[in-house]
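Q: I'm writing a short methods note and want an example of a predicted protein-small molecule complex. Could you take the sequence and the SMILES for S-adenosylmethionine and return the bound structure as tokens? Please keep the output block clean; save any remarks for afterwards.
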Amino acid sequence: METELRRTWESAAPGWAKWEDVIAEGLADVTDTMPDMAGVDAGMRVLDLACGAGSQTLRAADRVGPNGRVIASDISATMLMHVQEAAKRRGLSNIQSLECAAEDLPASAGVFDAAISRLGLMLFPAPKQALKAVQSVLKPKARFSALVFTTPSARAC
Ligand SMILES: C[S@@+](CC[C@H](N)C(=O)[O-])C[C@H]1O[C@@H](n2cnc3c(N)ncnc32)[C@H](O)[C@@H]1O
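A: Understood, no commentary inside the block.
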């Protein structure tokens, strides 16, 4: 199943990157709220789960600054390539890539001060497993903030 999922997102990646600026503009407010809620601050090591083409990764990288680091993780290598290209264009050298399914985050990823995820969690085949994996790499009391969409009938409030 993972291979098929990977293939699906690989084929979506060029289109996602093409519309990245439009997506970024439309989601600008919530994109800033997300790291606020996760307590992302200067010098932190932050995980961006399912980063896609990475406009929220860049904003997080601006926020953690030169002494911090954002690990951009995604199941699609092409998405990660777009993140690195965008980082290069912006002169950001504090973004690292991690290609893996969210459900399989390795312990070797190290520990994080905070984690964010924009429009990823609700698409994962095993979101609970992904949440457990994120929890396992977060420092005690570190926060994870995710932007998700759902149907009106399923919303909590
Ligand atoms: C809707 S896009 C959102 C991308 C980006 N976060 C944004 O807001 O523009 C979903 C992303 O989740 C990634 N993805 C899907 N399933 C995944 C999984 N199981 N583990 C990690 N990434 C996954 C896709 O490759 C894609 O980049």
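A: Remarks, as requested: The beta strands are 45-49, 69-74, 95-99, 112-118, 138-147. DSSP finds six helices and five strands in the chain.
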